[in-house]
Amino acid sequence: MPIIIKTPTEWRKTQEKLNHTIGFVPTMGNLHAGHLALVERALKENETVVVSIFVNHTQFNDPADYDNYLRTLDEDCSKLDAINAHYVFNPNKDTMYPENYEVQVSENTDSEFMEGQFRQGHFTGMLTVVLKLLNIIGADKAYFGEKDFQQLKLIQKMVNALFIPTEIIACPTMREENGLALSSRNNRLTDDEKNHASLLYKYLSDFNLSDLEVKEALEKTGFRPEYVETKWGRRLTAAWLGDVRLIDNIPIQERK
Ligand code: AMP
Predict the structure, then answer these.
(1) Is 139 exposed, middle or buried (0-12, 13-18, 19+ CB in 10 A)?
(2) Nearest residue (CA) to ligand 1, atom 14
C-alpha cells in the first residue's frame, strides 16, 4: 500500500531521506483511469511518486457539489497500490489552510471567462491550493490533465509568473469507449445518462458545426450548456445533464 502522509512536516521528514526525482499528481480522490494514467506517467518519469488526495473546499462554488463529492480513500489507496505508487498526501482542511484562506492567489485575465464566468471564485481556490501543494511537495515534475484545460493553462501561467521550480506536464484526456471524458462526477450519472452524455463529445468534435450550432444541438438533446467556445486551439464546453455538470474540450486539429 502507498504510505499515507498527513502533514507537510511529515512529508519533509520523509523527503529528507529520499535522494530521488519526485513526481507529483494532485487530485481530489475518487480515482478513475484518467487519474491513474497521470500516476503511471509520473511513475515512468520519476523514482518516487506522490499523489495528493484532498477535496479542496475553497474551489467549490456550490456547497452541494462539495458535500456530494465522493470520498473513497481506501479504494483510492488500493488502486494506487495496484500500480505501485509510493506516497499519498492526504491532509485535512486545517492543515492546508492555517491562515483560514486569508491568503489567496488569483489571476485576472484568463480566469475571467468560461469556467471562471460560471464558477465564481473557483480558480482562485484552485490556484491557491495548487500553489500550496507544489510548495509542500517540492516535486521535480507535476502532472495535470488536459481534461481541465483552462485550469492547466492557469497553472502553467502561475508557475511561470511565480518562478515555481516544478515542471508542469500536461497529459491527454482519458475517455470511455463512447467518448465520454472520465470524471469523478460521472459516478452521479445513471447508465442511461452515461450513454446520452457521449453526445457531448460527439457534437464537440463535429467541426462542421460552429460553436453556436454545437450549443444549439446540445440544448435540443436535453443538455443545458453553459458555454461552447474556441480558445487555445481547442473547443471547450461545460454542460449540465440532469444535476451533473460535465466539462470537456477537444483540440481543433482532431477535425475529421
Ligand atoms: P480532480 O481529481 O478532478 O481534481 O483531477 C485531478 C487531475 O486529474 C487533474 O489534473 C485533472 O485534469 C486530471 N483528470 C481528471 N479527469 C481526467 C481524464 N479523464 N483524463 C486525464 N486526466 C484527468
Answers:
(1) buried
(2) 145
Residue bearing cell 492555517:
98
Q: In the CATH hierarchy, which top-level class contains the domain 184-250?
A: alpha beta
Residue to mutate (ligand 1; options 147, 176, 201; most atoms within 8 A of CB): 147
Q: State the span(s) of the chain assigned CATH 3.40.50.620.
A: 3-171
Ligand 1 center from residue 142 Cα (angstroms):
12
Sheet holding 224-231, edge to edge: 224-231, 234-241, 244-251
Q: Report how far residue 130's alpha carbon sits from residue 95's, in angstroms, rounded to the nearest whole number.
A: 14
CB-ligand 1 contact for 38 (6 Å cutoff):
yes
Which positions are annotated as active-site residues? 35
Residue range 80-123, pLDDT digits in tens: 999 999 999 999 999 999 999 999 999 999 999 999 999 999 99
pTM for the whole thing? 0.97
For residue range 221-250, list pLDDT tens digits in order: 999 999 999 999 999 999 999 999 999 999
pLDDT at 19: 85
Contacts of 64 (CB under 8 A, 6+ apart): none
Q: Which CATH architecture has domain 3-171?
A: 3-Layer(aba) Sandwich (3.40)
Distance CA 255, CA 207 (A): 6
Residue 254 has pLDDT above 70, yes or no: no
* 35 in contact with ligand 1, CB cutoff 6 A: yes
CATH 3.30.1300.10 residue ranges in the chain? 184-250
C-alpha distances in Å from residue 210, one per residue of 32, 114, 198, 250: 32, 17, 19, 14
CA of 186 to the centre of ligand 1 (A): 12
